[in-house]
Each structure stands twice: as C-alpha cells, then as structure tokens.
Design goal:
heterodimer, A: mainly alpha, Arc Repressor Mutant, subunit A, three-stranded antiparallel β-sheet, B: mainly alpha, globular
Chain lengths: ~140, ~375
C-alpha cells in the first residue's frame, strides 16, 4: 500500500495534525509562562521586601548579681569552715588550683573571689613549694 | 600447509566482498569529512571509525560482532538500544545550555515549535512511500535535526534502522551550511533578511533561570510523558548549571560524561551500520526523506515567521525561523552568517540561539509524542 491510501490506512493524517497541535500548544504555553515569569519573581521579591522586619528577641542574659565583697567577708569564716570540711580529700596541704577545681566541681559561686578573700584573710596560708593549708579554723 | 590455508581462509581479506569495501570506504569518507573539513567531528569521527570496524568481515559465533550477544561491542551497543546514551547526552546538553536569550525573548520559542512541522510532513511522506508506521515515525524525527533524539526514538520504534537514520541525521546536521542557506534565500526577500531585531532585551534574573527548568520539565513532561527520558535529564542538567551549588556535577555532566556517551554512541552506531542493512533501497529512501525533513523543517520555520509578521507591529527577521531546528549551534550560526551577507551590521546570533534552544525542547517533545502514538 502506498500513497494517500497508506497514510489514511495508518491514521497518518490524525497523527500529524494532533502531533503538530500538541507541540505548538506546549511550546506556546511554555512561552507564555516564561514571559510572565519575571513578573512572578518580582512579586516574590516585593513581598520579601515588604514583610515587617522581624527583630530577634534579645537572648535572655544570665543575671549577674553584683559581687558584694562585704557579704563574702561576713560569711568568710563560715565559708572557710565549710570548705575545709569538703576539702579533706586534698590533704593537709594542697595547691590553690586543686582547691579551685574542687570549688568548681561543687558549683560554688565565685570560686576565684572566695579563694582570694580566704588568702587575704589568712584562712589559707602558704606552706611552701606552692602549697597552702587551712589556718585559724 | 593445511593449517596455513585454514588460517588464510579465516582472515577478513578472504571474506571481503564489494559491499564491505563500499561501507569501509564510506566510513573512511566520514573520517575525512570530520578531520579535514571539520564537519560535525564530534560525531562523524566516531561514527566513521565505527563503520570501518563494523564492516570488517569475520566468522559468526565467536563473540566478535556487534549483534552477537556475548561480544564487547554488543555490551557497548546496549546504551544505544536501551536509549541510555541519548539520555546521558541530553544531561550534558542541559548542563551546557544557556537559556538566557530564550527567556529574554519568549515569543521566539514559537519559531522552534513551527520548525518541528518538518517532522510531521516527513511522517506523512514516509507512510506514503510504504514504510511501516513505526519506521515512518523513526524516519520523521530526522526532521528535528537532533542526533540523540533521532537515535533514541529509532531505538524504541525501529532498531533495525538505527544505522541509516543516525548517519542520515548527523550527515544532514553537518551539511546545514549547504542545505539551509538556499532555502533561506528562496523564501525571504532581501528587505526581510535585513530586518534588525531590537537589542533591548531585558536582563534575566538568576531566579528566572532557576525557575525555568522546574517549570519546563513539569509542563513538557506532563504534556508528553514519553519525553521524560530526554527532557528529564536535560532540565536536570540545566538546573545543576544554574543552581551554582553543584558546580562540580555540572562541570562533569557537561564534559566527561557527555564526551564518554558521545564516543560510545557514535562508535557503536557506526559499527551497527553494516553492509546488508545500509546498502539497500530502504536506506536510500531514508536519506532522501531525511533531506526532505530538513528542508521542510527549515521552510516551515521561515514561513511561520512571515505569518507572525502579519500580526506583529515590530517585525521579526524571518531568517530566525530557520534556527528553529534543533541543530545547536550550527543553524543559529548559519542564520547569523546569511543575515550578515546582506547587512554586515545585522547581529542575529543571540536571537537565533533563542529559537535553537526552543527547537531542542520541541524536537524532544515530538519524539515523546510519536513514541506514544506508535507504541
């Protein structure tokens, strides 16, 4: 079979017309979408610019209580007695670093100020070679 | 002595006949055209050498030939018959394509659609010449001027015609500088060829380039799901390129991966083109129909551009219609050159690239449509 008869017998006309219409419609639709794409992008960018700026809330800060040296001094003897009782594991003489680490592990507030005040007040006295021991209690 | 005679009788020289000699000569010619004339060398050289290799005679049954199931060439040929290589090539093409000019001038996409009419005209011609419907569909896609698409659809519809169709498709793509200009000059006047296209195209933003592959793949693949194996990787490759976050992958897709697929595709297609399939009246008909397909595709793009000008205030240069075929960037370059011959100040290259890019999408959609019609 050849010629127009062959085309008709194999549905050629329908395939050609339908195929041509589908590809034209598809590319025409894509062309229309593309022609509007820049407006869509501009709309998104406009909305992002207009959205109220969200100011992040300030992070909750740790409350730093003012250090009252007088208060530490007031309780210094009691503090020394308490610390002596818990520092038994350090021995008779110990380094200030090990005492500091002990205070830190016990979550004692202001370990540096405490150790300084105890030294200044004479509750911690040097025994030589960088070691200290409790005295006056 | 007997051993020597047996050996000589097993050599290719002994089994050579005139058909193999003709095919080896054709393969050599393709290699010459690719190297000396630089006609589509990326494809013609592998195809040409494949033709030479595929037409060296041997004893069947030793796992040597491309059609023998346990041969190396047969395993490589799997990528052609399954449609794997064309998909990989399209991945690389997407990663190499810059759609900026097309997005800036969307109405030129219609010319890419119009140029696909050559496919349907050739479908009718092939049916009229007595080809089976599936064979006619495979021959018709030559009009899309897209090598990987032609091989993909032929592998699905008429695998026995891969050789002649692939060679016809790539030969005509290589002959664009010879085929298209006379048709362009015949269907346009000098005044029309001298129309300058406005150079006030808008700047395309990065977000548009990002949205386009998503929109494109959804629209085209929902319309013609059978085009998923081609357009899916194509738009994916493009998204990798424009996203900017996977530059390594995009670079690999547009270089090593596409080159590897191209080598194996061309070589195995050439090797599959053997004398008994190629030197037939069917092959000659396919070559004739291929030239018709190309010419009608060019002409339909040109004529559609002239029809568009009847409705447009700002006329478009009808030469751009010829760039609607999928042969990127050959036909865009040819349109630009033809325009420059009449007016050296007329720069049509970027506008022609817009039509070319849409032609790639259009031919892949047509392949999907034909496959779904002829399944």
């Amino acid at each position: 079979m050849q010629g127009l008869e062959a085309i008709a017998a194999n549905n050629g006309w329908a395939m050609a017309v339908a195929g041509a219409c589908i590809v034209m419609t598809g590319l025409a639709t894509l062309s229309i979408i593309i022609s509007q794409l820049h407006k869509f992008v501009r709309l998104i960018e406009k909305r992002e610019a207009q959205a109220p700026a969200v100011v992040p809330a300030p992070k909750a800060q740790k409350e730093f209580l003012p250090i009252d040296p007088a208060r530490i001094l007031l309780d210094l003897e009691a503090t020394a007695i308490t610390l002596k009782s818990i520092s038994g594991s350090l021995g008779e003489s110990f380094s200030l670093i090990s005492l500091y680490r002990l205070l830190d592990s016990e979550q004692h507030p202001h370990p540096h100020i405490t150790v300084r005040e105890l030294r200044d007040a004479g509750y911690l006295t040097p025994v030589g070679e960088g070691s200290f021991s409790w005295s006056r209690i | 002595m007997e051993l020597l005679i047996d050996f000589l009788q097993n050599t290719g020289w002994y089994m050579l006949d005139y058909r193999y000699v003709i095919m080896i000569a054709i393969g050599t010619l393709f290699c010459y055209l690719a190297i000396a004339k630089e006609y589509e060398p990326l494809l013609l050289l592998p195809i040409g050498f494949g033709v030479i290799i595929g037409n060296i005679p041997f004893f069947k049954g030793f796992g040597l030939g491309i059609y023998e199931s346990n041969s190396v060439l047969h395993y490589l040929y799997f990528g052609v018959t399954s449609g794997l290589y064309p998909s990989i090539v399209f991945l690389g093409l997407g990663a190499m394509t810059d759609f900026t000019s097309m997005l800036a001038r969307p109405k030129l996409m219609l010319l890419g659609a119009a140029a696909q009419m050559g496919i349907y005209f050739t479908l009718l011609s092939a049916l009229a010449l007595g080809f089976e419907p599936k064979e006619a569909g495979a021959i018709a896609i030559i009009g899309g001027a897209d090598g990987p698409t032609s091989i993909f659809l032929t592998a699905k519809l008429a695998p026995h015609l891969i050789g002649p169709i692939a060679i016809a498709a790539y030969s005509y793509m290589a002959l664009i500088p010879i085929i298209q200009p006379p048709i362009m000059k015949l269907l346009t006047t000098k005044a029309e060829r001298c129309i300058h296209m406005p150079d006030d195209s808008r700047v395309v933003s990065r977000k548009e380039l990002l949205f386009f592959p998503i929109v494109g793949v959804l629209l085209c693949c929902l319309l013609a799901p059978a085009s998923i194996p081609l357009l899916g990787p194509f738009f994916f490759g493009n998204l990798m390129k424009v996203s900017g976050v996977v530059d390594r992958l995009a670079r690999t897709a547009s270089s090593s991966i596409i080159d590897t697929a191209t080598i194996f595709l061309g070589f195995t297609v050439g090797a599959s083109t053997q004398a008994d399939v190629f030197i037939t009246t069917k092959s000659i008909s396919i070559f004739f129909l291929g030239s018709v397909a190309f010419s009608i595709a060019t002409a339909s793009g040109l004529i559609f551009a002239k029809i568009m000008n009847l409705f447009l205030k700002e006329k478009i240069n009808p030469l751009l219609g010829a760039a609607g075929v999928s042969a990127v960037p050959g036909s865009a370059r040819e349109v630009h050159i033809v325009a420059q011959r009449d007016d050296p100040t007329n720069y049509l290259l970027m506008h022609a690239m817009a039509c070319n890019s849409s032609g790639v999408i259009g031919s892949a959609i047509c392949a999907g449509i034909l496959w779904s019609f002829l399944l």
